[in-house]
Amino acid sequence: MIINDRKEFVKKNFEFIVIGGGSAGYAAANTYRETSENVAVVDSSAELGGLCILRGCMPSKTLLYIADVLHHARQGAKFGLNIPTATADMAAVHERKKRIIGEFAEYRANQLQGGKFDLIRSSAHFMDEKTIRLDNGDELTADAFLVSTGSVVNFPPLPGLEKDSAIISDNVLDLDHLPESVIVLGGGVVACELAQFLNRMGSKVIQIQRSATILKEGSPEAAQVVMQAFRDEGIELHTGTKITGIEKIGDRSRVTFQANGAEITKEAAYLFNALGRKPNTSNLGLEHAGVELLRSGHIKTNALQQSSNPRIYAAGDCAGPHEIVHVAILQGEVAARHAAGLNPDQVNYNHLTKVIFTDPQVAATGIPETDLNARNVAFLTADYPFDDHGKSILMEAKYGYVKIWADKAAGVVLGAECVGKDAGELIHSMTVAVALRATVFDLLKAHWYHPTLSEIWTYPLEEIADELKKRD
After folding, report:
1. Residues 249-258: pLDDT tens digits?
2. 145 in the Ramachandran plot: left (φ > 0), alpha (ψ -120 to 50) or beta?
3. Dihedrals φ, ψ of 3, to 5°?
């Protein structure tokens, strides 16, 4: 049943109400529906689908792949190919993106509107721990709630940075023309992925990052590889900066910042605020329901996704700690099963897999080395570079490396990192290994086909195996 917020809603009581119909919310509603028909999803967005489909993963990766194709065409001479010109038709690129994302969004909308649960197009405000009020004044009650309202773009208090002075990722993903120049503020995943997209499509890109390296979500070594690739491609990357002023000069944007003891001023046609996102947890009335927020604005949850009020769960970007779609889905499923009285397994963050879709890509799985050191776990590491590997050399994919770490006792693979061509695909060999607690010896029993990119994993595997044999 689909309910418009302007109409009177007859049904008032539910077992489970999900607030937010994105990846976490849909997964939770769909999971709870396996045990009960008395489920509702309350969603206030103008368009159904959630951040990933509409303004995140899918549109960005659609555009990034297009930029990769264009980049390879321009590199044709390296392969003995004569490709006289290769340019972007941004109007055609935009239309392709709209068509693809429209199909994804239609599929998700049909799932939400298919009648498995009541879909209520409204915002929700908690009146107390078991009651929410809709836009039209109706009040609904539930035995349990899941808050999965996602995140919104963050506008930190920088001098001159206002919402009307900068574009955000939504705008970049919806461009139907090529900006002549763009200043990108930030060095996180979104900033880096879209900075490289804009640069490869033909914009002059100036990227300004506060810390000494970009991509703090990964290792410092990975960041250095991507920084080198960015600079080699022509991105003007400034790190270790402090922004002192932002202003509009006619139709252009000017940013003044300090770096390396000097004051620098840069101008561009567009200013792109890519300084991260924050949890979308305001205006929900969570304080009326006894739901505690962390300093970051995230809803504080336990391992079963319960908030400080055990009747109210949270999942996805509004809960954290990782703003990743598959994690949001896992969290939503755990919350729904627990709310239904089942005994679900907790999300195992020791198996966490992350991918950054720059080129070279950055991917990691398992327990980070820094965490293992903090836990006093003894482990061995080995790595191998892409610029000494047959398949990557013939592909001109020489940036980066693979790295594996395994425990010293038996060689169980605890984690891995891949920085390089198709790292997001390559990492899954190690993701499976981590989840199954495979040893380096187990993995070396497999047939690793030559010549493939995946074969590169055998080098660090063999190095760790040889080290363990010496200890026997």
Report:
1. 999 999 999 9
2. beta
3. -115, 125
d(CA 319, CA 368): 21
Question: Other C-beta atoms within 10 Å of 282: how many?
Answer: 12
Tokens of 174: 């919806």
Q: Are 234 and 144 in contact, with CB atoms under 8 Å apart?
A: no
Given the candidates 1.10.510.10, 3.50.50.60, 2.20.25.90, 3.40.50.11740, the CATH classification of the domain at 2-153+278-347 is: 3.50.50.60
| pLDDT tens track for 430-454 | 999 999 999 999 999 999 999 999 9
Q: pTM of this prediction?
A: 0.94
What kind of architecture, by CATH, is found in domain 169-275?
3-Layer(bba) Sandwich (3.50)
Q: What is the pLDDT of residue 10?
A: 55
Residue 350: strand, helix, or coil: helix
All residues at 6 or more sequence positions from 100 whose CB lies less than 8 Å from its CB, including other chains: 58, 62
Taking the alpha carbons of 312, 318, 322, 326 in that order, is the dihedral positive or negative?
A: positive
* Residue type present at position 31: T
- Domain boundaries defined on the chain: 2-153+278-347, 169-275, 350-471
Q: Which residues of the chain fall short of a pLDDT of 70?
A: 1-10, 472
